[in-house]
Amino acid sequence: MNEASASRFDFGRIAHRYDAWYRTPRGAMYDRLEKRAIAKLLPPAPDGGTLLEIGCGTGHWSEYFSDRGFEITGVDISERMIAVARQKNVAGGTFEVADAERLPFPDGIFDVSVAVTTLEFVADPTRAVAEMARCAKKTGGTLIVGALNPLSTYNQRRKRRVARMYASANLFSPGDMRNLLSPFGEPTVLVAGLVPRWDFLLWLSPLLESVGGLIGSEHGAFLAAKVTL
Q: pTM of this prediction?
């Protein structure tokens, strides 16, 4: 499988250091806020609940979903990312190399289909979401998408770094996300990741997030979206 033809960026090049960002103060804060947003949308795991994670990468989010009680099937186009994910021995987790636009699963077998910061890098996001929906249960199945927001000044700065992975990403505004998901149901879209530019003010992030929610700000760095089938 040719990773370069299936993804806007070769994540295999950074698989060995991908998780290091989450251990920085800024990365840890974004991770906290993003997971708080996804938690608002993620349904409780039923007994034996199954979750398909598209673009699972190194399994960082897989560990979170496993902790929430789901049996995880993680797929990623990058063999090196999958190798790192397998080394983590995520409880109830299995990982395999697969293309988000051609998922190797039967119709309607997962309770939840998830893609977190994945659709920005696939060649055809519409097709990838259709595959997510195909693999989810037709009655009561859930689609959850986490995505980077181009209205965020932080993401705008990252896009300008030509040599980095974000330069190739196709980001989604709240309106873009609603348009992408609306063929499958009525989307709920949350805006998160309102984090100060300066690290010494990171502690203010939860407060900024709360204020942003009250005033309806659409400029957070992260979107969390949900559709119930």
A: 0.91
